Amino acid sequence: MIVLGIETSCDDTSVAVVKDGVDVLSSVISSQVKLHAPHGGTVPELGARKHVENIIPVYKEAIEIAGILPEDIDRIAVTNTPGLRPSLNVGISFAEGLAKQLNKPLVYINHVYAHGYSLMLHSDNYTPPCYPIILLIVSGGHTQLGIANSPLNFKIIGETIDDAAGECFDKVARMLNLPYPGGPVIDKISNEGDETLIVFPRPLMKEDHYNFSFSGLKTAVKYYIRDKNLVPTIEETDNYETEISRFHTIDIAASFQEAVVDVLVEKTVRLAKEREIPRIGVAGGVSANSRLRHKMIQSGDNNEIGVFFPAMKYCMDNAAMVGGLGNFIES
Ligand code: KG4
Ligand code: ZN
User: Fold this and answer.
1) Rounded to the nearest 5°, which phi and psi values hold at 79?
2) Cβ proximity of 302 and 168 under 8 Å
3) pLDDT beyond 90 at 37
């Protein structure tokens, strides 16, 4: 079955063609990063307007790269929740119009489940895990840990009680005056930083439940910067005269990243051991993080647990995961 996936939940316009749920024939993503960067975050109304401009060219390109005709599509799958409503609506309207025009069935996809499913897409040198898996979803909007028994059966055991992990990366990056989106930048500069220099809190890490909290960690970074009088935070720019040295920025970034990664790894591996499920999958934008990948794999190795990450191209928002999951929904 050929499924056309459509994803416009945030700031990427993406259309993909996926065969039999796993073979990605095309996955086209038009990023809006440049549009939103000057604002330090996604501006919903601007984003929606850009999706309107992009959706038809991106669709045409996806069809062309896949080498199919519109009539070859068996089903259309579109993300309908969660996300920015004006942005979601662009994808939904386009999908509904196309489904009518082509007379094809349309299914609606939950974005978080689609991230989880990204672990099952085929790509070079990657063998997907079999179910059940301990699944950690870490993105800009979500941090959820649970057990995936099938593509559509995800039992959540713990989740963040405040900020999502990616949101925390983005906010700390802003405090350090790093460009948007902050996660990839913190990841990159942390490579050269000393992650042991500052011991930031690991919130809820040792508690015997599986919820997360990142708001206190974000505040700890903010107070560290303020107390050392190091760098202007975005909202306090006028009160500061000194600039943080490039050297110390990378140490703060690395120490912060280490705290997030330690909490995510500790809780995920503990759940895998407790439930005796020797497979961990991590998905969502933060699953691209190199330190998270390294430490999760290392801890998995120490505990005889297989650790799976989607191919880099399927970590961030993309329509391939939507088209893939669309294969499994009754239409
Ligand atoms: O899944 P995604 O593309 O969108 C949402 O569903 O939210 O995730 C975006 C989030 C952003 O917060 C971004 O900063 C974060 O993922 N992110 C990263 C990395 N790449 C993206 N965070 C840490 N390290 C990265 N390499
Ligand atoms: Zn996402």
Assistant:
1) -70, 130
2) no
3) no
Q: Distance from the CA of 166 to the center of ligand 1, in angstroms?
A: 5
Res. 280: pLDDT tops 90: yes
AA identity, residue 139: S
The pLDDT of residue 245: 58
Rg of the chain in Å (alpha carbons): 20
The pocket around ligand 1, CB under 6 angstroms, is made up of 10, 139-141, 166-167, 169-170, 181-184, 187, 284-286, 288-289, 316-317
Q: How far is the CA of 136 from the centre of ligand 2 (A)?
A: 13
Going by CA atoms, what residue is nearest to atom 16 of ligand 1? 285
Among 28-42, 128-142, 234-248, the least confident range: 234-248
When pLDDT is averaged across residues 272-288 and rounded to a whole number, the result is 98
Q: Peptide bond before 82: cis, by omega within 30 degrees of 0?
A: yes
> Residue 211, CB half-sphere, CA atoms under 13 Å: how many?
6
Task: Write out the H or E segment, with its range, that includes residue 254.
Answer: helix 246-275
Tens of pLDDT along 114-142?
999 999 999 998 999 999 999 999 999 99
**How far apart are alpha carbons 13 and 30 in whole angstroms?**
5
Closest CA to 244 of 170, 172, 177: 177
Return the half-sphere exposure (C-beta side, CA atoms, 13 A cut-off) of residue 75.
Answer: 23
Note every long-range contact of 268-271, with CB atoms under 8 Å and residues 24 or more positions apart, other chains counting. Answer: 268/134, 268/136, 268/145, 268/296, 269/296, 269/299, 269/300, 269/303, 269/305, 270/210, 271/134, 271/145, 271/157, 271/158, 271/210
CB 28 within 8 A of CB 320: no
**Residues linked to residue 5 through DSSP beta bridges, in sequence order:** 16, 77
C-alpha 31 to ligand 2 mean position (Å): 13
